[in-house]
Design goal:
alpha/beta, OB fold (Dihydrolipoamide Acetyltransferase, E2P), three-stranded parallel β-sheet
Length: about 210
């Protein structure tokens, strides 16, 4: 009887040792799946006020150009994009290209200039087919207000000067800094913010954005 009991006990221990690790493996949590990489933005936040992302197009700020490697670098918020180009690159709205850089016209672009780039992608690289700089704003001379006139109005204040100064730039630009007494009414939101306009239609309304250029 004693020998039989020992045998049964031994079998029980062997079974426990055999089953135990298997149960532990079944209860072990599965490893977490790696987080999917977030795609880079193709439209800067400031541009998204008026434009939506489109395939094969990106909007941001021109950063630099290297003709030796035929590459353009643009900034889209905190992200940087590098695109290749060749002699077939179409360039639009580029003005005042000096004669000494006529063969390298992209050097006329100022750093930070808003641009739109049309591109194709191959083997993980982007190739620019067109670069469109933000065009200058066209305003009739009789509708323009001189800087010194605005300075006088701001010095008087809206009540005494009977004016409303509207900053038509996107909100992020307005938050970076604006002219004193200005009210931010971004162009895309104009219809929704008409209540900010003066009730007196004889009041002077002055709009400004990022300047003529």
């Amino acid at each position: 009887m004693l020998r039989k009991g020992i045998t049964c006990l031994s079998l029980a221990l062997v079974s426990a040792l055999t089953i135990g690790p298997a149960l532990a493996e079944e209860k072990a949590p599965a490893p977490a799946a790696p987080a999917a990489a977030q795609p880079k933005p193709t439209v800067a936040k400031v541009c998204a006020n008026c434009h939506q992302p489109q395939p094969g197009s990106m909007r941001g700020n021109f950063d630099s150009v290297a003709y030796k490697t035929q590459s353009i670098q643009i900034k889209i918020d905190d992200a940087t994009e590098i695109l290749r180009f060749d002699e077939n690159l179409k360039i639009e709205n580029l003005h005042q290209v000096a004669a000494e850089i006529a063969e390298q016209p992209l050097r006329a672009l100022k750093k930070g200039k808003e641009v739109r780039i049309e591109y194709t992608e191959k083997d993980g690289k982007k190739f620019a087919s067109a670069l469109i700089a933000k065009p200058p704003i066209k305003i009739a001379p009789e509708k323009q207000v001189r800087t010194e006139d605005v300075e006088k109005l701001v010095a008087m204040g809206p009540e005494k000067g009977k004016y409303l100064l509207i900053d038509a730039r996107p909100l992020p630009r307005f938050q970076d800094g604006s002219i004193a007494t200005a009210v931010n009414i971004p162009f895309p939101a104009f219809d929704k913010m008409k209540d900010k306009l003066p009730a007196d239609k004889a009041s002077l309304i002055v709009y400004y954005c990022a300047g003529i250029t």
